[in-house]
Amino acid sequence: MALPVEEWRLCAARRWAALDPALRERLEAAASLQDTVRLGCGLLRPEVEAAALQRLCRRARAGKEPAAARFYREEGNRLFGRRQYRAAVRLYSQAASHELPGSPEVSLCFANRSAALFHLGCFEVCLEDIARAESHGYPDRLLPKVLLRKAECLLALGRLQEAADALSVVESKIAMDGIMTSPTHQTLLGKLSQLKVKMHEKERCPEPAREAPGDIQKESEIWEENDSISGASSSLSLNFDTERGRHLVASQDILPGQSLLKEEAFVSVLCPGESLHLQDSSETVWDTRVTNADLYCHRCLRQLLASVPCCGCSYAKYCSQKCADMAWEQYHRTECSLGPLLLTLGVFCHVALRAVLLAGFPEVRRLVEWSHGGDKDHHNPEARCKHLSEAADIRAGSRGIPGCNDSGQYQSSYQAVFNLLPHAEKHSPEHKFLCMLSVVAICKQLQEAGLEAAVLNQESSEKWSKPKTCEETSGELSPELKTVAAAMLRHVLQLQCNAQAITVMQESGSGDGAVVNKKPVRLATAFFPVLSLLNHSCSPNISVSFSGTAVTVRASQPIPSGQEVLHCYDMLCCSNEACAVSVSRESLSHRLQDLQQQIKNALELLRARKADQAIKMLQKCQMDAGNLLSPEHLLMGEMEDHLAQVYATLGKWQEAARHLQRSIEIVEIHHGPSSVEIGHELFKLAQILFNGFAVSEALSTIQRAEEILLVHCGPQSTQIQELQEMKTCLLELPRSILQRT
């Protein structure tokens, strides 16, 4: 959710409508975003808007709640008993996120999770959880059991000496406990004996050493970095003109598949699941649905198996203690207590806050003051002229291009982020007011929670979480926080046209079919200063892919020297310009939502193994959509894709291929014959033809899919490897079969 929740948007709209007309005019005519903040920071009334926001925040649970921890741990135990180990891992992780650090309860969560991980064969991660359980005070009487599990993991990993040491510790521990006749002790002793036998067998017949991952030589790509643009290839140059603004052009001929940019996001924020906003404070039923917030590290966006929870809130989760510590040091110690507010106000506000925290207040103040001409010198013409000259220098750099540093280099830095255009004049006054009121609400919360010093980098961390007393606070923001609010407002407006969605390919459907159906899902929202230099085109010549918080841009077609490098920002729209049916935007939106809900219901039927009913519902959706949309609309292609999925589940491969080929025709109209979208669709078609034993058609489809996906995803892509495996399997068939097919 990029923008605030609907209730807050309506609240801000009512406040805007009730403003004195003269004040509305002054807000609309404000010369700078800093002036907008100065005029508007007193408009958040404690008894109305602030109180409404506080009520909304209660719905976004982000605190640690013992009742939730008990519920999730018990649910995890129940699924563990059913041998649903992966689901149990998720629930134990949820339980751990609600427990206090260092408590016996959190150690139990880690120990239980280690048992589920052991059954999944994730021995390294299991060892990490055992260490966490021990470090958080796991009960001494239960320790032999987890130490035996530790020895089993070490044995499975071939670390024999460590396994022997662990077994010695277990033996000593059992002996120290005294009574050796209880059923528990007898079970432990039996397990210990079994492990000793296993270890002696391993010592007599050691397994051959496995080749280390680092020994495998991967094909390395020739890459020469640009001297002037960080992360960009030397085959690009940065240009500027009044019509196109900053843009990248090819400085030499570029081939399809050639890497053009490798950039880490300056800032990124994981997009939360919608379920986080559906809970009311009076509810006692806890949500067990899994969202991206449970599946990916909140800092580096790596996929999570056994998450490390934040020490202060239940929302933030990390892939390792290192990531948790880095996030805390860089920004989360300020964000942690603001979790419900940030979830309520949306990802754009969260990105804006995190950007200023990462930049540091001195850099934020420097750029805000220069961008607004220095209010302190407003009435001094000589000083103002000098200040404006300095502002022009800092924005343009020595080469006259905004965002470059004094050496003429365009770096992936806060200065580059700050110089992205907010297009303030193109936003409606109501939208700017909503954004202003939202960032002011965040800054007021920072001030009231005693976090201002943390934001301004002024005091030690011990003093950062101390709230101010009533005497120390007032309704007025401090000058420093007004500066922070002005920067945040700029970033929220920038994000409307400069936000980059970090996407990940996720499986859709039941996941148990013969065809893997994947689609790109928005994982996070980020600022990529260099990527943002690319202008939009409906006919792009590049493809974008992500790995964690890093983006890679590759040429999707030949780009001759001097041609601009262009990116496509897609949106769902009707492509039939000659359509005679005229409906309001609101009516069209509602009808599209209804169709999408019907499609969702059909997929639920498929997951419930009611394929025949799913087919009937999708066919009805097609008939309804035919009265509203053109045959080439993307939603029509999506329905063909889902029908192919259902028929593949039934093993009706020819019917599945027929529907998927129709989907491919529609996708090709919108994205082009060499697009990454076509590559993904051809990958699915290759799977269907492979399973349907249509050998010649499968081989030709595999070849086309390989050619496209190699350009967009590179040779290390899992899809490329799967295509090559299918091709090898087909080519190894007897010649007589190949000739028949």
From TrEMBL:
Reaction catalyzed: L-lysyl-[protein] + S-adenosyl-L-methionine = N(6)-methyl-L-lysyl-[protein] + S-adenosyl-L-homocysteine + H(+)
UniProt keyword terms in alphabetical order: Cytoplasm, Metal-binding, Methyltransferase, Nucleus, S-adenosyl-L-methionine, Transferase, Zinc, Zinc-finger
CDD domains in the record: SET_SMYD4
A GO cellular component entry from the record: cytoplasm
GO biological process: heart development; methylation
MF GO annotations: histone deacetylase binding; methyltransferase activity; zinc ion binding
Subcellular location: Cytoplasm; Nucleus
Entries under InterPro entries matching the protein: SET-MYND_domain_protein (IPR052097), SET_dom (IPR001214), SET_dom_sf (IPR046341), SMYD4_SET (IPR044421), TPR-like_helical_dom_sf (IPR011990), Znf_MYND (IPR002893)
Name of one Pfam family that matches: zf-MYND
Superkingdom classification of source: Eukaryota
Record-linked PROSITE patterns: SET (PS50280), ZF_MYND_1 (PS01360), ZF_MYND_2 (PS50865)
Function, as annotated: Protein-lysine N-methyltransferase. Monomethylates PRMT5, modulating its transcriptional activity. May also act as a histone methyltransferase. Plays a critical role in cardiac development. Acts as a key epigenetic regulator of gene expression during cardiac development via its dual activities as a methyltransferase and negative regulator of HDAC1.
Designated name of the protein: Protein-lysine N-methyltransferase SMYD4
Origin species: Melopsittacus undulatus (Budgerigar)
Gene that this sequence comes from: LOC101877859
